[in-house]
Amino acid sequence: MPSNRHTPRSVLVTGGAGFIGSNYLLAAVPTQTAVRFVNLDALTYAGQRENLMSLEDLPNYAFQQGDIADRGLVERLFESHNFDTVIHFAAESHVDRSILDPLAFVRTNVLGTATLLEVARQRWKSRGDVRFHHVSTDEVFGALGPEGFFTEDTPYAPRSPYSASKAGADHLVRAYHETYGMPAVISNASNNYGPLQYPEKLIPLVIQNAVSQDPVPVYGMGENVRDWLHVLDHCEAIDRILRSAPDGTTYLVGGGEERSNMDIVHLLLDLVDEALSREAGSSRRLVRFVTDRPGHDFRYALDGSRLAADLDWRPSRSLEQGLRETVAWYLANPEWLEQTRSRTYDEYYTTQYRDRIDAGNPIQAR
Ligand code: NAD
Ligand code: TYD
Hints:
By secondary structure, the chain is of the alpha/beta class. It folds into two domains: 10-194 and 229-253, Rossmann fold (3-Layer(aba) Sandwich); 202-225 and 259-291 and 318-358, UDP-galactose 4-epimerase, domain 1 (Alpha-Beta Complex). It has helices at 19-31, 71-81, 95-100, 102-123, 161-180, 202-212, 231-244, 261-275, 305-311, 319-332, 334-344, 347-358, and strands at residues 10-14, 36-41, 61-65, 85-88, 131-137, 184-189, 191-193, 216-219, 225-230, 250-253, 258-260, 287-290. The strands form three sheets. The chain has a seven-stranded parallel sheet, with helices on both faces. Strands 7-9-11 form a three-stranded mixed sheet. The chain has a two-stranded parallel ribbon with strand order 8-12. Helix 2 runs parallel beside helix 4 (102-123). The model is unreliable at 362-366 (pLDDT under 50). Bound molecules: nicotinamide-adenine-dinucleotide (NAD) and thymidine-5'-diphosphate. The site of thymidine-5'-diphosphate has 12 residues, from helix 6 and strand 8.
């Protein structure tokens, strides 16, 4: 395998106020003190600058509110900071929202990624010491049946507006590499969990509702399967790929922890009961089977052997341990959940989607 080391010095992180970006920056900024980080984030409902307050006084960190699709702004940032690296997290990231408002996903995920690539191409014309790392998802490969795994060579077959827009972004990154020689890498990760995840995604939603003893909506029969990856394992994989992968490569990043939704929900409810000294299993009665998500992908599972073989990376946390720590984090940070929801859980989403899901009514796209 060709070695292709990249040493970041001045990094544009997009979407760093979201779930994975916050975890990445909280780990990287204090430890990589020779690297300068600029966090460009639009602060949509999913982004919280408060997540990163502990970084704001550090000399190697700066925050810039703004839109990745704003070409003038991205050009000015490249001009001022002479970036040699882009780590591109920013996206509209929630499948259910993409069913309601697909164009928002096309705009940010496709046009926003294209804007970043185009500015980087103009600025990096004659440079070899640069790299664009695109953070993507295994959902671009579509849905699996009960058997088999995605590999890096699986054909793309996205089935939701979210995954289609991420696939479009992946194709653009690859096209910039093939056409213009853009030094780029792509990582496609499985479902992440951990601290600071917006409580519209399954794991923080279940923890939140278990704590408040509200109904826990399970789509369909809860038989769909996901592979779960701790966010800090994902962040470590991103750093490994960014610094050591050959240009133009793609790596799948998985947790090696496949579970049905029902198993995950029960595990979480039991962990909350245990942590709050409630009667064992008592929160399981909160489960409500609700109308299924349209086009609900049955199963995601991936073969992480290329990343293990080439870059010696494997996840370090078991799901059981990771979920235990995650439940403990949300229980220790009730004000984060409260503030996140009350400030930003927008009326559009709750009235158009969440309330109907919670009431077990059919989901309708606009
Ligand atoms: P998130 O929704 O928690 O955060 C997204 C961040 O991007 C937010 O801070 C938001 O304000 C920002 N943003 C949105 N639109 C923007 C725009 N136009 N300009 C600038 N900033 C904008 O998402 P996440 O879960 O942290 O996911 C981060 C990345 O990882 C995404 O690209 C996602 O597709 C990918 N990914 C996520 C998972 C997962 O399980 N969460 C798994 C694999 C890949
Ligand atoms: P989610 O966290 O939205 O991630 P993704 O759709 O990107 O995999 O959902 C994870 C799984 O949980 C998915 O199969 C849908 C299901 N789900 C529920 O059953 N109930 C819920 O309230 C949510 C948000 C998700």
